[in-house]
Specification:
Order of helices and strands: HHHHHHHHHHHHHH
Largest sheet: none
Low-confidence stretches: none
Shape: globular
Number of strands: 0
Distance between the termini: 56 Å
Number of helices: 14
Length: 308
């Protein structure tokens, strides 16, 4: 419903909102970094500054954006960067813990959005069925994550990878050669949940907060086009869009899936679908700028612990 000329006019109308969205993600990444930092600090001294960890956070997310199956890019980078400071086992466990917390907060966000939808919107049989399925999947995922925190996740993850084509032989060899190291990583993961629960829930709360604050991006963008949108509605839009886009996790940057998710989500709230496409376009611009920043940061402030 929006031709190219209208799209270009709306892009120009973004004006101050684009820098505002960029600054918003500066703050979102700051919350992500604090969440990761308290996990690392719970295991002892770090030997690096918070600013350096912020750099690792931004670059890690940038690599995840452009890598198929996301976590295959940013997480190995984070482990590699932390290894000289805290050792390979502690670096691996902290990264695994943070990734688990980041994904765990996603399911909590979706579960929370179900109740928000019930409070704000009428529910027919079709939507009720969808909400029930999403709720059941979210609860199942939350259960498995809690089990993983209590007993560790590294060994189980490697066992799961042994059933996936192309990487199952590598996973089997790695699991056999690094069995003791993986078990120590699992013990560190379980220790956080059992002995340092305040750290566990603080990190989870920060990740959940980051997702809620990130919804301001949609609110800012849609307010360029219409004033008939509320922040709770933007939370629902972001929840549906992220759920839809994550079904296409194998696609770099979830190209097309996120834009389609935005269009469907705003359409479900009686907002023109073209506004959703426009929102997706602005978020892509923001994403590309932060990808460039993240990749450039890989070349800035590098060194070894000995010369800092």
């Amino acid at each position: 419903d929006m031709d190219y000329q209208e799209l270009w006019l709306n892009l120009k109308r973004a004006g101050v909102y684009l820098p505002l969205v960029l600054l918003l993600w500066l703050f979102v990444y700051l919350i992500n970094t604090v969440s990761w930092y308290i996990i690392i600090r719970s295991g002892g001294k770090t030997g690096f500054s918070f600013v350096r960890l912020y750099k690792f956070t931004v670059t890690g997310f940038a690599l995840n954006y452009v890598t198929p199956v996301g976590l295959m890019g940013g997480e190995p980078y984070r482990i590699m960067e932390l290894k000289p400071y805290i050792g390979i086992e502690r670096a691996t466990s902290s990264v695994i813990l943070y990734v688990m917390m980041h994904i765990f907060s996603h399911f909590c966000f979706w579960f929370f959005s179900i109740f928000l939808y019930l409070a704000l919107r009428p529910v027919d049989i079709a939507m009720g069925t969808i909400l029930a399925v999403v709720g059941a999947v979210s609860l199942l995922a939350i259960y498995f994550f809690m089990k993983g925190y209590k007993n560790g996740m590294a060994v189980r993850t490697l066992k799961l990878l042994q059933h996936i084509p192309f990487i199952k032989e590598w996973a089997k060899r790695f699991s056999e050669n690094k069995r003791e190291a993986l078990e120590r990583v699992d013990s560190q993961i379980a220790e956080l949940h059992k002995q340092r629960r305040s750290t566990f829930y603080a990190s989870l709360s920060l990740e959940f907060m980051a997702r809620i604050i990130g919804c301001l991006e949609v609110y800012f963008i849609l307010n360029i086009l219409t004033t008939d949108v509320s922040f709770p509605a933007c939370i629902l839009i972001m929840a549906f869009t992220s759920l839809f886009a994550n079904l296409f996790f194998f696609s770099p940057m979830q190209l097309g899936a996120r834009e389609g998710g935005f269009a469907l989500a705003v359409g479900g709230l009686a907002i023109p679908g073209a506004f959703g496409v426009y929102t997706g376009l602005i978020t892509r611009v923001r994403e590309l700028i932060w990808i460039v920043i993240g990749v450039l940061l890989m070349k800035v402030g590098n060194g070894t612990p000995a010369n800092k």
